[in-house]
Amino acid sequence: MKVINRNHSAILLSSLAGLTMPAAAQTSALLEEVVITAQKREQSMQDVGVAVTAFSGKQLEALGFKDSTDISLMTPGVHVSGALGGQLQTFTIRGVAQSDFIEIAESPNAVYIDDAYVGFMSGARFAMFDLDRVEVLKGPQGTLFGRNATGGLVHYLSQRPTSETEGYIDLTYGSYDQLRVEAALGGALSDGVRGRIAVYSNQYDGVKENDFRGRDDEGNDDSQAFRGQLEFDLGESTTLLLKADIGRSEVSTSPYYSVTTYTETDSSGTIIDTIEQPAGTPDFFGGVTEDPERRSVTQDFSKDDLNTYDSDAFTAILTMDLGKGTTLTSVTDYREYEKETYFDNEGQSYSMLNFFSQAENEQLSQEIRLNGSTDGMRWTSGLYYLDYETNVDTGTFVDEFNVLGLPATWMQNTPDLETTSLSIFGQLEMDLSEQLTFIAGARVIDEEKDYSHSVTWYDYNGNNNSPG
């Protein structure tokens, strides 16, 4: 339960004061009022009783945000943590984070896309394009958003189809032969039918020159995404939105390197300082460390399309006005994610011990909720179902031609997790006066998890050397 003060005051977005931007066009975009759905109904941000940072589509464009995690740059109390040399990135909100890199672990900070929960941790990072707004809710949001919203959540909402024909195209050409394309087109297709398509593509060559003979440069991108929407008027009070999101990405091995250091000790042998060797100093195997001045590396474990990420999502949102201030909303969502990533464990120029992570995620969710209002009172109630399955293969392998002559081996962990969750929730708001609102809510969750885990150890010839 909580009581909020509804005295209105201007929000000046003071955290933006240090930016240097074209004043006329950009200032109005940065300071515009944003209508949000942080409590699963449309409200002005100043009327919401939770801590929210929201960005409209125009603000995202003015700030130059292109990646889903960019919002942390301008959101107090939010930053991005990661693992595997940056290949896995998740949100940390008010110090609440997920430090485990295994994909069966869900983040305590939920990610939603168009009212649909994204349980796969790698699904939190994607290209932002053709968005209406992004909402960041801080603090526990378990009543309305349920499981895994302990620290808060980030909600991305796409531009919806409109009756007016509209569109845009944004082209960028840059260094390293970068070609970035973002475009959208939408409008009325017939009476009562509207559509919108949006596409995204970003390609550029490796930004770090690899001095290891015959190996690819590092830091490239080859990503494409598509979003298609159809919205139907089913009578005067009902609309149905059908949406498909498809994304593909191929990137190089992670930019992860060891830094050659030496220690300085006093006469008793106590370490008093640890000093990094200058760029270009040979590492343990005789290779040369990264040179930031030249943007160069020396890495034999380097391939420009080694890591892949694929996602497919299909969402149906039915909205029905039942009259007397009551609205029924149904959100049906199905999505699949696949990823395959590799990582050089020791970060030396010559690869020996490497890490791999292959994961497949499939989830189906269904939410049905009722929103209503009377004089001085607003309420939300609903049912939520989630079926979530993740299959992971992860482990380490020793290269056959490693510089120390170690025997080539392959150790594989295979954790699999299936989660079935059913919940009922409700929230009530009552105006006690013109300045005070009383809010109470509850959620009951029944959840079942089915978990299995196996460990296998192979030699290079494929023989299973697992104990027992």
Question: Your description of this structure?
Answer:
By secondary structure, the protein is mainly beta. The protein has helices at residues 23-30, 57-63, 142-145; strands at residues 2-5, 35-36, 43-44, 51-56, 78-83, 88-93, 109-113, 116-118, 131-138, 152-158, 166-174, 178-190, 193-204, 209-210, 221-233, 238-251, 261-265, 271-276, 296-297, 307-323, 326-344, 353-374, 377-398, 409-431, 436-459. It has a twelve-stranded antiparallel beta sheet with strand order 1-25-24-23-22-21-20-16-15-13-12-11. A five-stranded mixed beta sheet has the order 4-9-10-7-8. The protein has a two-stranded antiparallel sheet with strand order 2-3. Strand 20 and strand 21 form a beta hairpin. 30% of the residues are buried.
Strand-helix topology:
Layout: E1 2-5, H1 23-30, E2 35-36, E3 43-44, E4 51-56, H2 57-63, E5 78-83, E6 88-93, E7 109-113, E8 116-118, E9 131-138, H3 142-145, E10 152-158, E11 166-174, E12 178-190, E13 193-204, E14 209-210, E15 221-233, E16 238-251, E17 261-265, E18 271-276, E19 296-297, E20 307-323, E21 326-344, E22 353-374, E23 377-398, E24 409-431, E25 436-459
Parallel strand pairs: 7-10, 14-19
Antiparallel strand pairs: 1-25, 2-3, 4-9, 5-6, 7-8, 9-10, 11-12, 12-13, 13-15, 15-16, 16-20, 17-18, 20-21, 21-22, 22-23, 23-24, 24-25
